[in-house]
Design brief:
It contains 7 helices and 3 strands, in the order H-E-E-E-H-H-H-H-H-H. By secondary structure, it is mostly helical. The chain has a 3-stranded mixed sheet. The longest helix has about 45 residues. The two termini are about 30 Å apart.
Length: about 200
């Protein structure tokens, strides 16, 4: 695997998008990761792990995969603090009344802790889900804007062709957190015109 070539291309794409280029490292990427790339933190710096699966992709799909991952890493990095703040404030808005009720209305501690824990988990899942959902739409839109709509269409087709490689448990998780195929297509059609089907 030519890490220098991948790093150079990632830096070019990052410059085109106006974002910071991630560190590119070789590493183990699960076989179900159909792009052969995976986000990682390398000595606290955002990094992109490239596995053997990436080398097996056609050149156009390598380029599309790199573009999407470079953007996703940047959106994840820049949006983390804002998401944490929103989550913290929304959780406090729920937690403070609950603490008040527990303190002054003799609610058993086990009930209070169970409700608090349930709300904490639910809040985390909802916040993570909404953030992930939004990030996917932003990445698709920005890639289409800079590189053209066909790149996004190519990567969507890749995802559909290789969906069978993803374990069922992961597919269920993705079904919860990822938009359906129709949703990004509608947004892209509205912004860039309908998809052109090529033979």
């Amino acid at each position: 695997m030519d890490l220098d070539r991948i790093s150079t291309r990632a830096a070019e794409l990052a410059a085109a998008f106006g974002v910071r280029a991630p560190l590119i490292v070789a590493g183990d990427v699960p076989a179900w990761s159909t792009l052969g790339l995976r986000y990682s933190a390398w000595n606290l710096r955002p990094a992109l792990k490239a596995g053997p699966g990436f080398d097996r992709l056609p050149a156009a799909e390598q380029d599309g995969a790199l573009a999407m991952m470079v953007l996703a890493i940047d959106f994840q990095r820049t949006g983390a603090n804002k998401t944490a703040l929103i989550y913290g404030l929304s959780h406090m808005a729920i937690a403070l009344p609950l603490i008040y009720v527990a303190a002054y209305h003799e609610v058993p501690r086990s009930v209070t802790l169970s409700i608090f824990g349930g709300l904490y988990i639910l809040g985390y899942l909802l916040t993570f889900g909404l953030r992930f959902f939004r990030m996917i739409h932003r990445v698709d839109h920005r890639v289409a804007e800079v590189m053209g709509r066909p790149v996004v269409d190519l990567m969507m087709d890749h995802e559909i062709r290789n969906a069978h490689l993803i374990p069922r448990s992961r597919r269920l998780l993705f079904a919860l957190y990822c938009p359906t195929r129709a949703q990004p297509l509608r947004r892209l059609d509205a912004a860039f015109g309908p998809r052109r089907i090529t033979a």
